[in-house]
Amino acid sequence: MLADALTSVTAIVALTAGKFLGWSWLDPVMGIVGSVVVSVWAYGLVRDTSGILLDRTPESSDLPDEIRRAVGSDGDSLVTDLHVWQVGAGKFAAIVCIVAHEPKPIDAYRALFREHEELVHVTVELQRCQEHEESHTSVA
User: Fold this and answer.
1) pLDDT at 134
2) What share of the chain is helix, strand, coil (3-state, %, to 5)?
């Protein structure tokens, strides 16, 4: 909004100066100044929001590593697939696929993520380890 207001003010100043002072050259100059202001503003906006629009995890975030550590802390569970993306300023969503020999209830895994206030939406997919199922079926 500031860039829009600034370009409007420069246009009014240029038109007024052109009418009363005869500076007709000021209007195109202010047009160029306005386009530079809008371009700088647009570049900053695209730079700041592109990560959110492209569902990308910022490189500075260690959230994926923390999720893997939290899930693997029980020695049985393993994160097999993890997608973390930014959904707002400092807010993230995640899809976590977990394989375990003795899976816990999904709410137990969700509880591991509650300390991360920046993680606002989590989908947990849970699977029993195939090796574990095969060993039980071959014994039976």
Assistant:
1) 53
2) 55, 20, 25
Average pLDDT over residues 85-111: 89
Task: Extract the runs of DSSP E, i.e. beta strands, from the chain.
Answer: 78-88, 91-100, 119-128
Residue pair 109/98 in contact by the 8 Å Cβ criterion: yes
Q: 78 near 84, Cβ under 8 Å?
A: no
Confidence of residue 120 (pLDDT cuts 50, 70, 90): very high
Q: To 5 degrees, how large is the angle CA 116–CA 121–CA 122?
A: 85
* pLDDT tens string 52-81: 777 676 677 788 899 999 999 888 899 999
Q: For the sheet with 91-100, list strands across it.
A: 78-88, 91-100, 119-128
Q: What type of residue is 115?
A: E
